[in-house]
Amino acid sequence: MAEVKPEEMVHHPPMDQLQGFEYCIDSNPSWGEAIGLGFQHYILSLGTAVMIPTMLVPLMGGNDHDKAKVVQTLLFVTGIKTLLQTLFGTRLPTVIGGSYAYVVPVLSIIHDRTLAQIADGHTRFLQTMRATQGALIVSSSIQIILGYSQLWAICSRFFSPLGMVPVVSLVGLGLFERGFPVVASCVEIGLPMLILFVVFSQYLKHVHVRHVPILERFSLLVCIALVWVYAHILTAGGAYHHTALHTQISCRTDRSNLISSALWISIPYPLQWGAPTFNADHAFGMMAAVMVSLIESTGAFKAAARLASATPPPAYVLSRGIGWQGIGTLLDGLFGTATGSTVSVENVGLLGSTRIGSRRVIQISAGFMIFFSILGKFGALFASIPFTIFAAIYCVMFGIIAAVGLSFLQFTNMNSMRNLFIVGVSLFLGLSIPEYFSRYLTGAQNGPVHTKAGWFNDYINTIFASPPTVALIIAVVLDNTLDVRDAAKDRGMHWWERFRTFRGDSRNEEFYTLPFNLNRFFPPS
Questions:
Q1: Most CB atoms closer than 10 Å: which of 16, 30, 310, 461?
Q2: What is the pTM of this model?
Q3: What residue ranges are annotated as transmembrane (predicted)?
């Protein structure tokens, strides 16, 4: 075989826009396809919207009716936040949902002595919810100030493609515990779901119906419908009558009690749980979760821009989006969702799986969230899908996000030992440190930092339990202090230079300009 000359080798030049997408951020499929794709994004968002209240509401003292109401409220507010973000924020096709980053400070509020000693469960639930609302309302000011003052834009100018590799990658990889470990809790449902989804979305993606690649675009809906029916047959057939409680919770389709507990029609409204209460310790602890969700959302926005076939969001647009996310957290506090706001990572991954990055699709999904949260019984029907099914999908979606983060390496020089050191150390410690904090919390029921100052404990334990946050701290510090004078090109800074300002590239105006000619009143910098 003749030796291939270097100049004849296939070369893949770096591309600031991901190619191969059927519809990008500002192009739209037909209304029929858009509605179907929007409903698919709505179904995927149910996993987090159900899981967080299922985890927290019983610990607060709430019953099944309280849980159903919190799920409805979280979905309703998620729809509002998503519309605001896609219209006035970054304008990227992102769902703004609940965040697991807030679990640690919320658990701290739940275990507060003054609340834990309340004997009546429902009273304790209301008081705990009001305390959580107060902490969310106060802490939301962090993102609002950092976003609208453009302080986060100033900070983001220190983010190079090299520094963003571990951050965006760990936005996906850092959620590994919600992937196969949950699938394995009911392997007879989770594993078929995972295999079916990979086969339908990848191997059968060229199957067309009326010139539409039906399985590539709607494989999630098809697979969920098939496996959900299969799970219901197992449940109705008595397969789980004599199994452990944990197995029944993971596998049965009738264990959530959401359908029986939900009202037919219920419109969530601000202060529906009563007037929020304010406590300085709770608020300071919650501020750590706000910072974590800010960093995680920054990484997710970068990934969403790539998977919507858009250019990297300018610093001004990124900061604007963080400001609107702060407004979203404020809405979480006013309505009482038991958690704060962040970009839904799984929905960003679905953009890549379907190769549809249209903003309109996400706005339609927001409409479904609002509609089905008001029609409680119908929304509860979809929300009763076993979480194992969602976990199987997460295995793919979170992996796509991790790969998007790694794709930023194309802008850097990976023949540089400096860059290898920064990426390797930040990736490893970004996984290792949060894993230590997580295991310690599971075993000792408190974090490694447990001083007498509860707010300080929450702050440190929340920050270092987040893989993207740890990765950003390490990567950005190393990238901006280690041999930085001679490493500008190696870091990839020249690739993103024209995207640092709104007017630096003509495509920015196409992707990120505000609607209704609002840029006249809010001129970008």
A1: 310
A2: 0.93
A3: 39-59, 134-152, 183-203, 218-240, 361-383, 389-408, 420-439, 459-478
